[in-house]
Design a protein that fits this description.
Helix content: 40-55%
Number of strands: 19
Distance between the termini: 45 Å
Strand content: 15-25%
Radius of gyration: 27 Å
Shape: globular
Structural class: alpha/beta
Length: 619
């Protein structure tokens, strides 16, 4: 479905940035207003990320108006904020397909557009990538400019400060735009600050600053006084000292919803050399009152009628696995004062809201700092605390060294509650939790558990919490089977599988929540069905018995085949000098694009029909 461009007469004149740059400057406010309305209209039809994009409309217009994109590089951080960018760069008519199978990618994606300079799904990478591009641009010597756009939340990650430190040290020509939509200094924004930002980026001020520094460089006391005076004058209205100390020229804060102020400031900054920080203050959800009031709730939305000013009520469903984890966490904290829970800025997504409110002294949100989260957990565990790290599968990738070096080598009792394991659906390849089994399985001292339903998940979390060594429980995004998971917890025998059904010829070895498909296939095949429960340690006795009693073994997992649970089964059987006919079903050796979980299970042959087809092809 496409929207009627007649309703957006000014935006219709800017199909691509080159057309935008030909329009008069006084039309930019109307274009921004229509762009915001188009974003609202299109996302309400398609579903997708919402509040962040509404906050970056004017900034996006200004960037493409001032910079010669795609020759000049604009690197977006995360990508939630890049929907207006997609609309202005030739993809406007396809916006209603975003995050759908075969539709627009949910984040910036270079194969989709030359304007998408870098693939981004996880936060805090933009400054590093932009610095790399700036170095290349300097060597190319064609006048290419490079801009990184990063949010204040993403700026909390260590990699962002590593990149700032390096960029300031080598003095590369680049601009970092800090999109601040939360800091208290936003109260300082107004006409005065916009005016000062224009002055601070103008030729007069910078000629005085640069010339003065050169002139006074040989007179340390006067130079020091001049530097302190400059900081004092600027410090009265701008909080940029830390960036200046890192080697950046800092400008702002300016109103991120005043498109003309941004254009004027960027125009001046574009003429300057060296590393620069422009601080713009925006409001998430700008232009849609409910999203402004609650940007977390409106971060990503389903299809909805925006004229109703409310999101549709979700259809009744079973509690999702994040909620199962959150309930377990509260239950455990009631009986374990030594329990500590850590999240890297995923309180809502990981189901920890109630826990954070009821047990604030046992709850730690470390912001977007996954490496720190894991080593913080190790430090707590070293002092006798029972620590849980609630983390998405793809975010744990960012703390792999800490997992090995700081937790596993010391065999510390840290439990990793791995959310969004397996296919996540609409967020696509950057968020598919495909690799956690593979990268965890090779680490000594690890226990890895794959629950098949909500009760198993609760019991495995309890088992991991009591294990006194590194443990991981991986569970998917979305709802379970609907069974009641609020009862007493059971301590499972480590490494013990469970036979669900006995049959003939074929044995299906299930790892995780694809169990309903495995059960249906087992019924139709009269096959044995074993819920393996543990990827590590494997129940080798159960594997040996299954291999001796059946003609064909089928492993099923919602993770990469390469290095996955099926590979562990093959290794274990080979160790026992058994080489049965073995089929490994899981995710292929490729990055899985966006689509619903069900669509991808079907396409990849992981549903009932796919299991039956695989067995038939090998019988």
């Amino acid at each position: 479905m496409t929207l009627n461009l007649a309703d957006y007469p000014n935006l219709a004149k800017a199909n691509i940035p080159e057309e935008l740059r030909k329009l008069p400057k006084d039309s930019l406010t109307k274009i921004a207003d229509e762009l915001r309305r188009y974003l609202l209209d299109s996302v309400s039809l398609s579903s997708g990320h919402f509040a962040s994009g509404l906050g970056t409309v004017e900034l996006t217009v200004a960037l493409h108006y001032v910079y010669n994109t795609p020759f000049d590089r604009v690197v977006w951080d995360v990508g939630h904020q890049a929907y207006p960018h997609k609309i202005l760069t030739g993809r406007r008519d396809r916006m209603t397909t975003i995050r759908q199978k075969g539709g627009l990618h949910p984040f910036p994606w270079p194969p989709e557009s030359e304007y998408d300079t870098f693939a981004v799904g996880h936060s805090s990478t933009s400054i590093s990538a932009a610095l790399g591009m700036a170095i290349a641009a300097e060597q190319e010597d064609k006048g290419r400019k490079v801009v990184a756009v990063i949010g204040d939340g993403a700026m909390t990650a260590g990699i962002a400060f590593e990149a700032l430190n390096h960029a300031g040290d080598i003095g590369e020509d680049m601009v970092v735009i800090l999109n601040d939509n939360e800091m208290s200094i936003s109260e300082n924004v107004g006409a005065l600050n916009s005016h000062l930002a224009r002055l601070l980026t103008g030729n007069f001020f910078n000629s005085i600053r640069d010339g003065g520094k050169k002139l006074l460089s040989s007179v340390p006391p006067i130079k020091d006084f001049a530097s302190r005076a400059e900081e004092h004058i600027k410090g009265m209205v701008v909080p940029g000292t830390i960036f200046e100390e890192l080697g950046f020229n800092y400008f702002g804060p300016i109103d991120g919803h005043d498109v003309h102020a941004i254009v004027d400031t960027l125009t001046n900054i574009r003429k300057m050399s060296g590393p620069k920080i422009l601080h713009v203050v925006t409001k998430k959800g700008k232009g849609y009152e409910l999203a402004e009031q609650d940007p977390i709730k409106w971060h990503a939305v389903p299809k909805f009628n925006h004229l109703d000013h409310k999101l549709p009520k979700a259809a009744p469903s079973s509690p999702n696995f994040s909620a199962i984890f959150g309930k377990w966490l509260c239950d455990m904290a009631q009986v374990d004062n030594n329990l500590m829970a850590i999240t890297p800025a995923m309180r809502e997504g990981s189901g920890m809201v109630e826990f954070s409110q009821r047990f604030p002294k046992q709850y730690f949100d470390v912001a977007i700092a996954e490496q720190h989260a894991v080593t913080l957990a190790a430090g707590m565990a070293r002092e006798g605390k029972n620590v849980i790290v609630a983390i998405y599968s793809t975010f744990l990738q960012r703390a792999y060294d800490q997992l090995i070096h700081d937790v596993a080598i010391q065999e510390l009792p840290v439990l990793f509650a791995i959310d969004r394991a397996g296919l996540v659906g609409a967020d696509g390849p950057t968020h598919q939790g495909a690799f956690d089994i593979s990268f965890l399985r090779c680490i000594p001292n690890m226990i890895i558990m794959t629950p098949s339903d909500e009760v198993e998940c609760r019991n495995m979390l309890y088992t991991g919490h009591q294990a006194a060594k590194p443990a991981a429980v991986r569970y998917p995004r979305g709802s379970g089977t609907g069974i009641d998971a609020t009862g007493d917890m059971q301590l499972l025998e480590i490494g013990k599988a469970k036979t669900v059904r006995k049959g003939n010829k074929v044995a299906i070895l299930n790892f995780g929540t694809l169990m309903p498909y495995a059960a249906e296939a087992a019924e139709q095949l009269n096959a044995t069905l074993i819920d393996m429960r543990f990827v590590k340690p494997l129940d080798e006795a159960a594997l040996v018995e299954a291999a001796k009693r059946h003609e064909l073994l089928v492993t099923l997992e919602d993770g990469a085949i390469a290095g996955g649970a099926g590979g562990g089964v093959a290794e274990a059987l080979f160790k026992h000098k058994l080489t049965p006919n073995l089929i490994q079903l899981g995710l292929p050796d490729e990055f899985i694009m966006q689509g619903t979980q069900q669509e991808m299970y079907t396409e990849l042959g992981l549903d009932t029909k796919g299991i039956l087809a695989a067995v038939a092809a090998n019988s």
